[in-house]
Amino acid sequence: MLLFNYIRFFIILILFTLLSCKKKKAPIFPNNNVLEKHIESKDVSQKTVLKNTVKFVNATSGLNYRESPKGKILGKLNHNQEVAIVKRTRIISEIHDEGMLIKGEWVGILKNQDTVFVFDTFLSNSKNEKYVQEHTNIWSKFPLRAMPFIDSTNFDNFKKKNRLTKEEILKLQLHEIYPDLLNKDPFIAYPSYGLDLNLDGYYDYKVIVFTVFKGDHEVESVLVIYEDEKLMKSYNDNSKKPSFNSLIISYDEIAEGWSRITSEIRNNCITTIDALYTEPPRIDTTLHHINRLGYINKVNIDFKNNIRPNQKLKLHTVYTDTIQFIKYNDDYDYFFIEAKKNNKDVGLIYTWDITKKYDFKKHDLIKVQWKIDSIHIAGDGETLSFSEYAINAEKIQ
């Protein structure tokens, strides 16, 4: 009997243990990294183009895309650019555009394998074919020319072909440069060529050269830089003027035969030689640089400074001089040595680490090797300029 009771006790204990352990199985969560990867892979699988949602940008000025609906602007899509919608946010907004209240939804589109967001009111089901045709036709008259080259357009070597029509002159706003250009005589304009410059700015630019015959005795070529989106916008609204800059790069006259302009175009730089064949002859050389904002800037190449004030300095030539050190100044985009020479201020860019060799103190006399070289001014469209560079320096014992 006692044995039976023991057996019954153990059976009850085993049953109780089994029942107490029969709970709902707890969910197993991955660690944060695994969870993030799971979510990312789910998002990637959903980045498929939704049905009937291949669209085209219909904003002639381009369309901003953002990191989130109403969020930070990441860049701009071009007019007529094809996009693929991959996400509907159901976030509806109302915005003002050129005096009109526009309502639309923020949608996600695929950009470089990432989802970015745009306002869908500025998307259409098809391209603006009129825009495409006008855009293609107007630029096809300006075939791209390889660089470097010298533009020496004159009466002897220019062939009159594809004269620009009144409509084309109006679209290109060339009458803003030459107010009398719309008259048949004496102004007659012809397309010359286009340039594929490296203007890596926020907007797209078009760079063209056209040649104007100012009557029977003068001819000149003008380089014009357009902000493309504003030029295209002016096609549909003649009251809007495109943004452009221009520069005369060649000139010839045959009445007296005493004046010529030629230019060397290399990368984003234009070196213009203006020759006046008087007695004595005068030749002026001017350097212009086209920055990433599409501006044409004159660059000073008459190099003079307080280190050698009475000497005309040459580019890339190494000079050696003694100066009085004042301090290092690292408050700008370039690091400078501030110094004195004959009690006049001197500044040189330096690139070395301030080790024991270069640990100069105020009023130390130092011997410095330096040269004039190019710099690009940050925050100003990377505009070309020139400055003094310190190559090496040592304290005079």
Distance between the termini: 114 Å
Q: Low-confidence spans: pLDDT under 50, at least 5 residues?
A: 9-47, 232-240
Q: Helix amount, in percent?
A: 10-25%
For the report, how would you describe the main beta sheet?
A: 9 strands, antiparallel
Cα-atom radius of gyration:
35 Å
Q: What is the H/E string?
A: HHEEEEEEEHEHEEEHEEEEEEEEEE
Q: Can you count the helices?
A: 5
Q: Beta-strand percentage?
A: 35-45%
Mean pLDDT comes to: 79
- Summing up helix and strand content along with how strands pair, one would put the structural category as alpha+beta
- The geometry reads as flat
Give the tally of β-strands. 21
Question: How would you characterize this protein structure?
Answer:
The protein is α+β, with helices and mostly antiparallel strands and 397 residues long. It contains 5 helices and 21 strands. It has helices at residues 2-21, 32-46, 129-140, 166-171, 228-236; strands at 54-57, 63-66, 73-77, 82-97, 100-111, 114-119, 123-124, 149-151, 187-195, 205-214, 218-227, 244-253, 259-266, 269-276, 282-290, 296-299, 319-329, 336-341, 344-349, 365-377, 383-395. Strands 8, 9, 10, 11, 12, 13, 14, 15 and 16 form a 9-stranded antiparallel β-sheet that branches. A 5-stranded antiparallel β-sheet has the order 6-5-4-1-7, with no helix packed on it. A hairpin with a 2-residue loop joins β5 and β6 (114-119). The model is unreliable at 9-47 and 232-240 (pLDDT under 50).
